[in-house]
Model the fold of this input.
Amino acid sequence: MLKLLRQTKFLNKCLAAGFVLCSLLVLFRIPSMTAHPITPTLNCLHTSGNKILDASNHVVSLGGLNWFGFETSNNVPHGLSIRNWQDILEQIKSQGYNVIRLPFSNAMLKQGVMPSDINYKRNPDLVNLTSLQVMDKIIAGAGARGIKIILDNHRSTPGGGPESNGLWYTSGYPESRWIADWKMLAARYKGNDTVIGVDLRNEPYSACWGCGDPSKDWRLAAEKAGNAILFVNPNLLIIVEGVSHYSGQYTWWGGNLMGAKDYPVRLDVSNRLVYSTHEYPGTIYPQPWFNAPNYPDNLPAVWDKYWGYLVKKNIAPVLVGEFGTRYETEKDRQWLLAFRSYIQNYKLSWTFWSLNPDSGDTGGLLLDNWISVNQAKQDVLKQIQYPFIESRCFTKE
Done:
């Protein structure tokens, strides 16, 4: 997390060429051969305007937690040295959260990577499992409890926070590897309606938006990765975070979506795009708006400017992928209550940072013993929770 600032034409051609040729073209074409829409085989979560809809076209919203650790050198969600993984999932459900954003690193996905810092007496069913196999277990366990999963590519190398270069690739993990890993995960969880979305990259703060430079333009990279994922699994929500700066305007890492107005993300499957932002209080970084004389009444206009306009103008849904606070100062309490009201007003989807108490600058929903709940935070968050998502994907007739 943040540490400082912080297919119609194609079908017509096929029909003109004859059925057999059309079948061969459909069978063997690859993503780069077409910019036309891909037809999903299932009807799962999808979007319409600024809403997320279920398989029956009912509006649904997400309210959940970040459970981090797969992206760290432990290669597994934190807390398993103290508790049983299923008990943690039961607690998440009992507290009313319908989704988990699950950060991971590309390094963790390597074949044979093993987790560390697990108490195997408390988690005997995780013995000898690789990190990826533990991820399978957690996803299955979440699904059994009606909790959805968002996979979050938090960084390339093991560590905390976003990748140090602020981009979606490194020299050791080039863009091609980043896309290949996403395609692997899309295939691995295809047909599993617990995994509803993919957050393409956490906080690409050094990237530009719409500048046209393929080494820097996050919008172009998100399109490339999103379309590659959808070619493999067209039923996923593609979640695209913001950058930090656009046209001289700076905000939180991952929080600046101003460029999406003029340079929207273009996907080959319609109704799959969800933008995402991150927001934090002044104790994380003293943004200028925290010192305004009309604070906290000035905050909604700030949120509108950087990303809220996408919802207010019915352009696309926005997931608040991270927001968090230790909730210890008066200004932080004012910030969280104002943000709660903003989320309520626009029925925004969100995942709070974090479940983990070992987030150095925000703490967590859980206290340091990994068992007790910070009731003051929970009392605020329960006011913006949503029903569990009951409907499942079904094959179109």
User: Anything to note?
Assistant: The first helix runs from residue 8 to 17.
